[in-house]
Amino acid sequence: MMNYTLSVFRGSESGEITQDQISRSLSSNEVLLEITHASICGTDDIYLQSSQALGHEGVGIVRKKSAGVRSVSVGDRVGVCYIQKVCGKCDLCISGWNQYCQERKRYGADQPQQGCLGDQAIWSAGTLIPIPKSYSSSHAAACMCGGATAWTVLTKYNIQPGQRVGVIGVGGMGHLAVKLSAALGYETVVFSRSFSKREDCTEFGAKEFHILRKEGLSDDGSASSRKFQPVDHLLVCSSAPEDFSMLMKLVATHGTIYPLTVSLHSVSVPLLAMIDRGIRIQGSLTASTDSIAQMLEFCNENHVYPKIKALSMNREGIERAFQSMKDGQVRYKTILVKDACDSE
Ligand SMILES: NC(=O)c1ccc[n+]([C@@H]2O[C@H](COP(=O)([O-])OP(=O)(O)OC[C@H]3O[C@@H](n4cnc5c(N)ncnc54)[C@H](OP(=O)(O)O)[C@@H]3O)[C@@H](O)[C@H]2O)c1
Ligand SMILES: [Zn+2]
After folding, report:
1. Are strands 18-24 and 58-65 parallel, antiparallel or unpaired?
2. How confident is the model at residue 341, as a pLDDT?
3. Which atom of ligand 1 is nearest to the CA of 263?
4. 197 CB under 6 A from ligand 1?
5. What is the span of the domain harbouring residue 26?
6. Residue 327, SS3?
7. Is the pLDDT of residue 112 over 70?
8. Residue 343 falls inside a structural domain
9. Mean pLDDT computed over every residue of the chain
10. Separation CA 286–CA 102 (nearest Å)
């Protein structure tokens, strides 16, 4: 059986990024991809202190496939996402929620080699995402995780056109949440920690922009802050957990809060405030493969593109990408590109 050598980038106990090689063959239903584009997500930060091979959103070209694979052909351009392998048979896979596949934990534990930051990756054919012909690989790679997470919330939880949809935190995921929400016809309201992203958010389609600090909404004296109307749905896209007492004040009666921030810490929820106004709290993990494919079709048809900056897919580029994310400097997604010349 042919063995392939994959070059990957891993985290480490000290948080330093290391380069490593993995040697492995293709199992049944797997393909070998040449990775051309990958993006960095806030969740990668959690893996930086582990030996995990990094990267869970990217685009590659199928170079080899195992004998049984019919869904893709050699030469196809495909996307990879957080979900690496699914059983395809459990109730959740069948009902279009394969990000919650009942076999997922077992597969995760089986796959310490996961990661698409590198030159090649071996991925399960059943989780590859087709990319519309006229949608670029840079744009597709930048949508695969946070963008797809926002898309799932915006399309699968019964949000109605015209309803007020709030987005807290305008980063990689948040800026796509704003663009997608506006493109879907929702009245989109942004909450950010400073005014620096206000013009961008108006360009992305937001109708209102508010400053939100630890203590709550800041009254900057503008007409919109004086007349603030709570939102029906609130997507929390910040990189650190928010205070739920404060979130409750932003949401209308019978509204829903979607905490999307990944954190290993617990937060407390003011039960009385939640019960008193019938507020729902709905978690959501990334997206099913079907949902990601639908999002890319929608983005292609409606000209929705992430705002990206390209760096080279090498150790220096990856370190710069992580540092800019840590410093809050990214506007709004960094893409690592094979053979890029570190340009905008
Ligand atoms: N649920 C899922 O499946 C899923 C999928 C993808 C990502 N995530 C999680 O979503 C979060 C955001 O990811 P991302 O890729 O969008 O990260 P990001 O690009 O770093 O953006 C995070 C945004 O949060 C705000 N922020 C920064 N520091 C903050 C702080 N100390 N407290 C509160 N807000 C802060 C900033 O927005 P402003 O400047 O506008 O305030 C920043 O742009 C991460 O926790 C990530 O793990 C979850
Ligand atoms: Zn992610």
Report:
1. unpaired
2. 60
3. 45
4. yes
5. 4-145+287-337
6. coil
7. no
8. no
9. 93
10. 15
From 238, 243, 286, the mutation candidate for ligand 1 (largest count of ligand atoms within 8 A of CB) is 238
42 and 125: one domain? yes
- Tell whether 13 and 58 lie within a shared domain: yes
| Mean pLDDT, residues 81-96 | 92
Q: Is the CB of 77 under 6 A from ligand 1?
A: no
Q: Are residues 45 and 164 in the same domain?
A: no
Residues 172 and 104 in one domain: no
Q: Is residue 344 part of a domain?
A: no
Binding site membership of 174 for ligand 1 (Cβ less than 6 Å) = yes
Q: Does the pLDDT of residue 136 top 80, yes or no?
A: yes
Nearest ligand by distance to the CA of 240: 1
Q: What angle do CA 72, 77, 83 make, to 5 degrees?
A: 75
Q: Which of 266, 281, 296 corresponds to the end of one domain?
A: 281
Domain total for the chain?
2
Determine, yes or no, domain membership for 211.
Answer: yes
> What pLDDT digit, counting tens, does each position of 4-23 carry?
999 999 999 898 999 999 99
Burial readout 188-197 (b: 16 or more C-beta within 10 A, e: otherwise): bbbbbbeeeb
Owner of token pair 């959740």: 92
Going by the DSSP 8-state scheme, the letter that residue 126 receives in this structure is G
Q: Which CATH number characterizes residue 247's domain?
A: 3.40.50.720
Same domain for 59 and 187: no
pLDDT tens per residue across span 44-61: 988 888 888 899 999 999
Which residues have CB atoms below 5 A from the ion given as ligand 2? 41, 43, 145
Q: Is 42 in the pocket of ligand 1 (CB under 6 A)?
A: yes
Q: Using CA atoms, how far apart are residues 55 and 43, in angstroms rounded to an integer? A: 9
Higher pLDDT, 102 or 121: 121
Q: What is the pLDDT of residues 271-297, one digit of tens each?
A: 999 999 999 999 999 999 999 999 999
